[in-house]
Amino acid sequence: MSSPESTLSIIGCGNMGTAILDGLLSTTSTSSTTTPLPTTYIATVKTQPSLQTLQAHFATHLPPTTASNTLTLLTGPTSTTTAIQNSNTIILAIPPPEIPSFLATPDLPALLAGKLLISIAAGWIRIHLPNPNPALLL
To answer: Hey, what's the signal peptide range on this chain (predicted)?
Structure first.
């Protein structure tokens, strides 16, 4: 994986996360921009069938199809922790009923320290999400 400074993770890459990732990958691969974008992406899903769906959908962005390792797909009990550790920007795209499970991630506040957490989970407001620096939470 690339350095955390240039990596964006999408925790819960379902419909919304896939749409966001599609947009980011098409922007980085088809146009030039003055806004610095991440160079690598990590997407996590909860189940093996979801992982297979993402593998098929993003096949052109996965090795060995691409020479660079721009996208990593993760599933399993440590996928969330691994994704957060290896990125500086995290998009929380899990369904709202799964937020309590996410909040139970061991050492979550320490893992998020100094990182930008963007939540697109409907119905959850900033005070419900742990972050040692609330200014970093959008």
So the answer is: none
pLDDT tens, per residue, the chain with 138 residues: 455 568 999 999 999 999 999 999 888 555 565 667 888 999 999 999 999 999 999 998 887 766 566 899 999 999 999 999 999 999 999 988 888 888 888 888 899 999 998 989 877 766 565 554 444 444
The structure tokens listed for 114 are 């100094």
The CATH label, of 2.40.110.10, 3.40.50.720, 3.40.50.360, 3.40.50.620, for the domain at 4-29+42-136 is 3.40.50.720
* 60 Cβ contact list (under 8 Å, min separation 6): 66
Instruction: Give Cβ neighbours of residue 24 (< 8 Å, ≥ 6 apart).
Output: 8, 37, 38, 41
Answering whether pTM is above 0.90, one says: no
How many Å from the N-terminal Cα to the C-terminal Cα in the chain?
25
Q: If 0-12 CB within 10 Å is exposed, 13-18 middle and 19+ buried, where does residue 28 land?
A: middle
Residue 138 bridge partners (DSSP): none
